[in-house]
Amino acid sequence: MRKPIIAGNWKLHKTVDESVDLANQLKAALADVKNVEIIVAPVFTALTAVAQAVNGSSIEVAAQNCYPAVSGAFTGEVSPSLLKNAGCNSIIVGHSERRQLFNESNAFINAKIKAIHAAGARAIFCIGETLTERESGRMFDVLKRQINEGLVGLDAEAMGGVVVAYEPVWAIGTGKVASNEQAQEAHAFVRGVLSELFATEVAAATRILYGGSVKPDNVDGLMAMPDVDGALVGGASLKAEDFARIVRFQQG
Ligand code: PGA
């Protein structure tokens, strides 16, 4: 059984006080939730304060990025071990905004995943095709390449610390959610690639989250798909009420 994960990616939003306020609201609203792993990813400056706020609850804190080194002359960067030290158990890597706006390559993302594993943290590894790639029939090739190059050199044990997030770029922040069938098709494909790369058991145990315009009114259908194991939520994670409803998706 794969325990569902609902993760909120707060992107570049909220001050420290606003972040703590949202974390406290979620802590109160979701105190009784046991069957879902809940993660929030605030901006770097709010990480420690949010980690303190959710301490004692089941809400975990993730970082939105990291640099693949332990320490050194890398002005402006933060390492996975320092993020762990600040209270993060998970780190998002490969988000399409970083691939597109900051030119992050599959190789760089792979180095980050290895550094995250070495630090004993969990990677939330994002992949996804653009609309052009989908419409020109290259979607499966793109996904396969992102997975193969992003996970090269990792073994089955390391995969225990990797969560995959399928986020079609055309659905991120656009309000255009993938249909339940489109999500299922992509997730089943991703799981197939993982079983070729590792083993069927590894693929069967890996959580694959869907991301891209997940909202309270579409989460139930997405979560009903057999290979959708959770959601990575952007816009709707900024409001406690919406995110709490997404965490409390209705099964079946
Ligand atoms: P969205 O963002 O929910 O606002 O589409 C998802 C994401 O970027 O992870």
Description:
With 252 residues, this protein is an alpha/beta fold. The chain has two domains: 8-29 and 36-64; 68-209, TIM Barrel, CATH 3.20.20. It contains twelve helices and eight strands. The protein has an eight-stranded parallel β-barrel, surrounded by six helices. β1, α1 (16-29) and β2 form a beta-alpha-beta unit. α1 crosses α12 (240-247) and α5 (106-118) packs across α7 (139-150). It is globular, with a radius of gyration of 17 Å. The two termini are 16 Å apart. The mean pLDDT is 97. It binds 2-phosphoglycolic acid. 2-phosphoglycolic acid (PGA) binds at residues 9, 167, 172-173, 211-214, 232-236. The site of 2-phosphoglycolic acid has 13 residues, from β8.
Portion in strands: 15-25%
Order of helices and strands: EHEHEHEHHEHHHEHHEHEH
Major sheet description: 8 strands, parallel, barrel
Overall CATH class of the largest domain: Alpha Beta
- The CATH superfamily name of the largest domain is Aldolase class I
Counting copies of identical and different chains, the oligomeric state is single chain
How are the SSEs ordered, and which strands pair?
Layout: E1 5-9, H1 16-29, E2 37-41, H2 47-54, E3 59-63, H3 80-85, E4 88-93, H4 96-101, H5 106-118, E5 122-127, H6 131-135, H7 139-150, H8 156-159, E6 162-166, H9 180-197, H10 200-205, E7 208-211, H11 219-223, E8 230-233, H12 240-247
Parallel strand pairs: 1-2, 1-8, 2-3, 3-4, 4-5, 5-6, 6-7, 7-8
Helix pairs in contact: 1-2, 1-12, 5-7, 7-9
